[in-house]
Amino acid sequence: MHRNFIDGAWVEGSGVSKNINPSDVSDVIGEYTRADAAQTHDAIAAARAALPGWRVATPQQRADALDFVGTELLARRDELGRLLSREEGKILAEGTGEVVRAGQLFKFYAQEALRVAGDILPSLRTGVTVDVRYEPVGVVGLITPWNFPIAIPAWKAAPALAYGNTVVLKPAELTPALAWVMTEIISRSGIPAGVFNLVMGPGREVGNALAQSEGVDAVSFTGSVATGQTVREMVAGRGGRVQEEMGGKSPLVVLDDADLENAVGCAIGGSVISTGQRCTSNTRIIATPGIYDRLLEAMVDRCRGLRVGHALDAQSHLGPVVDERQFEVNESYLEIARNEGADVLCGGERVSRETDGFFMSPAVIGNANNTMRHVREEIFGPVVSVLKAGDYEEALAIANDSDLALSSGICTRSLKYAEDFKARSDSGMVMVNLPTAGVDYHVPFGGRKKSSYGTREQGRAAREFFTSSKTSYTLPL
């Protein structure tokens, strides 16, 4: 039994969930206890009690603890990569890569703990000095999704701890294993009891308790737009600080002058790879007339050559969909596309393998336009739609015509169009001749419109959310 972690102790909850391998539903990864609202409030109280000591811990103490976590994650990359692939369904190379990224994040923020800077400025008044310092915001609730079960907990928890906050983490109920492992490592890092707490369980109980509690100063959330809006209303309504990442429907513009092989790689690598279960996936491909037909044909050929299978099978290019419910959502959007008059040119079928899993062949949809529901709404599966635009200006207009604006991309040999797209794209992140999925941990991550709310995540931008500035004036007497 994998228990919750509260005030430095492993604690049983009010129920148990079985963690099932989506590549093989007969494989039970483990049993994980479920917290309820009362236990969540216990974790919040522990974090509140631990805050005075941790907020004044030396930068070296914080750095050493975070470096310890990062070092162990990297050392155990192969073991934990296999666990992640069993739990979430990413193929092994991606599962291992995600663990590596989590380790790198902890090591990055270990160094950031040593670089917390302030400013000393002259006042406009003679003899007065001004200093600006950055202090921890307080107790932070972290609510993380199932599709990146260790990278997203790491990129929230590491800066929160680096800047002196105490933490209550609620991972996705569907994928708790890697968050539990990360917590177990943190428990041995030298971080005092109560500074970091893990409460696993359903969002309607644990997540709501975090969002509504006056004992939580800030909440960082990653998940759906609808849930994010509910969380935001709860947190902001009581005066708390909130940061949210809530999905995308990222466009990839492909111009006539693009290198076809690179464009196909970007279109497929940024959409159906990882089973399409990334918020940054470029699921809207917008091509101009001179390349549209060739691109569409090449994408269909590429998808037909991809092998879908068990995440631990070295021959697999794609693993399974995360669970049956998501599989049914994907199927429903393919039916919606057909009813809207689009053409499902390949994929979308259930694939049979030696094990009983949620295997879906990647789907390419042609004859689509930006008014169609399947084009405008995030599907979160191995489904990509291809649209035609008359020229660059129309392609840019279609790309920007969305309520979601996380990431966007363009494939072109033209520096003129590349620079213009970077300047005029509405998205928070822009890629040139690259898939829209795939970002670095040392630079800001985030979108615009309904994709994001609040300050950016990752890199030094994380300081904006996890600290509060204090300006002091001094007149020596």
UniProtKB/TrEMBL annotation:
Gene3D superfamilies: Aldehyde Dehydrogenase, Chain A, domain 1, Aldehyde Dehydrogenase, Chain A, domain 2. Pfam families: Aldedh. Residues 10-471 form the Aldehyde dehydrogenase domain. GO terms for molecular function: oxidoreductase activity, acting on the aldehyde or oxo group of donors, NAD or NADP as acceptor. The keyword Oxidoreductase applies. The keyword Mitochondrion does not apply. InterPro entries: Ald_DH/histidinol_DH (IPR016161), Ald_DH_C (IPR016163), Ald_DH_N (IPR016162), Aldehyde_DH_dom (IPR015590). Keywords: Oxidoreductase. Belongs to the aldehyde dehydrogenase family. This is Aldehyde dehydrogenase family protein. The lineage of its organism: Bacteria, Pseudomonadati, Pseudomonadota, Alphaproteobacteria, Hyphomicrobiales.
